[in-house]
Every structure is written in structure tokens, then in C-alpha cells.
Amino acid sequence: MKMRLQYAVLVLFVLLANSCGKEPLESSAELETENAVPLEQELLGMVNDYRNTLGYSTLEFSPIAYDYANQHTDYMIATGSINHDGFTSRASNISTEVNASAVAENVAKDYPTAKVTFEKWVASSGHRKNIEGDFTHTAVSVKKDASGHYYYTQLFYR
């Protein structure tokens, strides 16, 4: 009987310890922040204006790309770092959902304006390649973390 009581106490302790643990980042709604829509629109406008000056087509806004861009921006804010973590999965999901043949991504952090972000992207060969790429659709997510730092994700696809 004493052994059963010890076992029950141990099980109860484990259950209580697990219930007080942290919730996974992916499912925490508290980590989602509001979009800086004016910055998103301004940055998208700059990208399309730039493409047009080079004779490239205007990129169409994609709600699907916007959802994935927002998820990734939330993830970067949660981790506190700029990254492309999970890009393969995002690209695969977008490809499946819209039958895309190519997907690309630009990210940024800490730039205070859409103009500065755009200028930094165009000055970077990899980012510029995506902006000038043979894509048809895009979406830009811009959000601010609790410290006031902006995080940017732009997804492109065709």
C-alpha cells in the first residue's frame, strides 16, 4: 500500500510539473502582434515601383503569402532574431496551396522605415534578386516587437 501511495504522489507531481511548463511558441496567441499596415503598403508600393522602372510586371498581393509572412514575422519576434527558419516548409505549403513553381523570401529587422528597408534590400544582391525576380505574387508583413523594433518578411512566388 505504501508503494502505491508513493507512486500516486510521484504521478501527481509529474502532472503538476508538466501543467506549469511553458506553452510552445507556435501556439501562443500572446506572441502575435499587430501589423504595421501603412509600412507594409508603402514597402510593397516601393517594390512594385522599382520593378516597373526596370520594365518588370507589378506583383499582385497574395493573402496566402500574407498569412505565411505574418506567421514567420511572429516567429522572428518570438525568437528575437532575423532568420529564414522553416522557409522550406513555408515554400512547400505555398506551392501546394497556389500551385507555385518558385517561392522566395526577404527578411529584415530593426530598420525604422519602409524606405530604409527597401534601400537595404536593393543594396543586397540576394534580396535584390528576389525583388527583381520572375515572380507574380507577393505579400509583406511588418510588425513591431515589445521593444519597438520592426521585423519584416516578404514572400514572393510565381
UniProtKB/TrEMBL annotation:
<dbReference type="Pfam" id="PF00188">
    <property type="entry name" value="CAP"/>
</dbReference>
<feature type="signal peptide">
    <location>
        <begin position="1"/>
        <end position="22"/>
    </location>
</feature>
<feature type="domain" description="SCP">
    <location>
        <begin position="44"/>
        <end position="156"/>
    </location>
</feature>
<dbReference type="InterPro" id="IPR014044">
    <property type="entry name" value="CAP_dom"/>
</dbReference>
<protein>
    <submittedName>
        <fullName>CAP domain-containing protein</fullName>
    </submittedName>
</protein>
<dbReference type="InterPro" id="IPR035940">
    <property type="entry name" value="CAP_sf"/>
</dbReference>
<keyword id="KW-0732">Signal</keyword>
